[in-house]
Design brief:
- It contains six helices and two strands.
- By secondary structure, it is mainly alpha-helical.
- It has a two-stranded antiparallel sheet.
- The N and C termini lie far apart (59 Å).
């Protein structure tokens, strides 16, 4: 085992590394190419599992290529963050208005002003 035996990486850290590799590549990649592009020394099966999970979550796409799949990012990091925010809002219970109100309460004045600007811009 490694020097960090018994320690687990924070949830999402490995998925973030895989996504970063796909974004940096700018073209569909095999699991082996993704594995070679990330800094962690991971087993082939670990990378395949991560790619499968990201695909199941809708964060990446895949298409047949060679003897397996070619994986590609569906959206950039900002789009992925927005998707996560929508998912959190959908899981917030019956009162979406309350969830949104609490979210806005936590915004900095600059972020609140930016949100108002975006909402006004969309109405034009």
């Amino acid at each position: 085992m490694t020097e960090s035996e018994g320690e687990r990486r924070p949830a999402g850290e490995l998925e973030a590394s895989v996504l970063a590799a796909l974004w940096a590549a700018g073209a569909p990649q095999t699991a082996a190419q993704v594995r070679a592009a990330i800094s962690q020394d991971l087993a082939r099966t670990t990378v395949a599992t991560l790619l499968g999970r990201l695909h199941d979550k809708g964060a990446i796409g895949r298409r047949p290529g060679g003897r397996g799949f070619l994986y590609f990012a569906i959206e950039d990091s900002n789009g992925l963050t927005a998707r996560r925010m929508h998912r959190a809002l959908d899981q917030g219970g019956d009162d979406r208005s309350l969830v949104l109100a609490r979210f806005v309460e936590g915004l900095s004045p600059d972020d609140e002003a930016e949100l108002r600007r975006i909402l006004q811009e969309d109405r034009l």
